[in-house]
Each structure stands twice: as C-alpha cells, then as structure tokens.
Design goal:
mainly beta; Immunoglobulin-like; five-stranded mixed sheet; 24 strands; about 0% helix; rod-shaped
Length: about 280
C-alpha cells in the first residue's frame, strides 16, 4: 500500500486585476486544497507586505485529505497613483509536496485624465441682433482607462448639443444673442468625469454692445445758377458713436432725380457722397 501524504495545491497560479484609481476594491479568490492524504496545516502571508493587498482571515487552517478552502484577496486602489503594482501571496504548509506555493499578484491602477480643447468661450456682438455664435468643445482622454463625462450649464442663451458621452467626443455649444439688451452675460460649461475625478470649467462670456449711427453734417445746403450744368457734391461722414460694429446703407426718397448717392454701404466709419444736379 502506497501512502502519498498531504499535497498542497493553490489555484489559480496567478492573480491579475485592473481598476480605476477612483474605483473601489476588487477581490480574488484562491482555492487552497489538500489533494493528497493525511492532513496539512497551512498559513498565508504577503511576501512584500503590500498595503493595497489584504488577505481576509482566516489566513491559517488545517485541511484533511481531499478537502479545500478559500482565501479571499482584496486589492484596493485607495491612495495609489496610476501604475502597476506587484506582490506575492505565499502559502506555506511545511515540508510537503507543493509547499510553499507562491502566487504572483499583479495590480494595475488606471487613471484617465479629462482633457478639453477650450479654456474659455468669449464672443462680442450687437445687442438685439440675430447673431449666432458656434463653438466646438472637443473632449479627449489622457492616461489610461475608461472615461465618461457629463456637461451642464445654467443659462438659456447657451445651448449644448449633448450633455453626456465618452472620450473622444465633442460638444457643439451655440450662443444666441436674441433680444437681449447691451451688457455682459456670463455662464460656465461644467464637464465632469467620475473616472478622472475632476471637473473642467469653461467660462462663457457674451458681450453685447449697442451701436449708434452718427452722420455729419446733419444737413446739406447748396446752391447753383439756373441753367448750370455743373454738378455740386457734398460728403456725409458716417460714424459709430456707440459700441460694437455698425453696418449702414442709404437710399433716396421716391421720385428724387436731382440727387444721387455714391459710396459703398458697409461698416462705419465711411463716407457717402451726394451729387446735386441742377439740370
């Protein structure tokens, strides 16, 4: 009759886990078995004593032939930066077959980084205009691991094309001037990523200005001899005495044939030439 004696077996032979730095702990189960006969007494320990690795008690025990138990390993990213960490679980049952068993533990901590393409959004326009400003905020990920995001804002004049997603992604923000009076309007686009553990804030500033047309001189008086064929000219100077930009155009009253206008309508300051014909 052959007596094999106790035999220590620990499975699996390695432990590999990956978590986000902002995530919670993960667990791995080691099965400790006596695949022989007789009994064995085992104990488990950490070779390097890593604080991120916890062996849940009991960490010692006795196994009869053909029996097994489990050892729970808890791996926690708390306090760890992105990187790969290693230790070894040592299960020792004395001078028997399979002892000691060395189980390498590899723990990878991923830390995504939230990246946005704009630091701020600033626009200026004329109050009461129909102007629409459009910007693209591109969202990308640095580092490693999954990255999701949500976006919020406060004001009705700021519109976001979407308010959640992953990376890479993009938000189209649209700013409507509408009927708002002159003044400075402010909001903030807030983009939050739980995996990155950070919030990006993009200030939004809308400056509305009120242009005021100013024409000099305020009147034109001229004279000519009856029968004269020499045209007379005068110049009107068109300026913006307010803020913002001012586009202008000019026209004559119907059936006015003795007066003509020349000069290109456009952005003030500019000039308008009047030609007076006595013929």
């Amino acid at each position: 009759m052959v007596t094999t004696g106790p035999v220590l077996s620990v499975t699996p032979g390695t432990v590999n886990d990956t978590v986000l730095a902002t995530g919670g702990p993960v667990t791995a189960t080691l099965t400790i078995a006596n695949t022989g006969s007789g009994s064995l007494t085992w104990s488990a320990s950490k070779v390097l004593g890593a604080t991120w690795l916890r062996l849940t008690p009991p960490t010692t025990g006795t196994l009869g032939g053909g029996t097994n138990t489990v050892l729970i390993d808890t791996l926690s990213p708390t306090g760890l930066t992105a990187g790969t960490y290693t230790d070894t679980v040592l299960v020792d049952a004395g001078a028997i077959t399979g002892s000691p068993a060395k189980i390498p533990v590899t723990f990878t901590v991923q830390q995504p980084v939230l990246i946005v393409s704009l630091d701020s959004v600033v626009h200026s326009g004329n109050a009461g205009s129909s102007a629409v400003f459009v910007d693209t905020v591109r969202i990308s990920r640095g580092g490693t691991g999954l990255l999701t995001w949500t976006a919020t804002k406060d004001s009705a004049w700021v519109h976001l094309s979407k308010t959640s997603g992953g990376a890479p992604d993009a938000i189209i923000d649209t700013i409507l001037v509408g009927a708002r009076p002159a003044g400075t309007y402010r909001d903030t686009i807030r983009i939050v990523s739980p995996e990155a553990g950070t919030t990006k804030r993009i200030p939004v500033i809308l400056r509305l200005q009120q242009p005021v047309v100013a024409v000099t001189p305020s009147s034109v008086t001229d004279s000519a001899n009856v029968g004269s064929t020499v045209a007379r000219t005068d110049t009107l100077h068109i300026n913006n005495s307010g803020a913002g930009s001012l586009n202008w155009s000019a026209s004559l009253a119907p059936n006015v044939t003795w007066l003509s206008l020349s000069g290109s309508p456009g952005l003030a300051p500019s000039d308008l030439v009047l030609t007076l014909n006595s013929t």
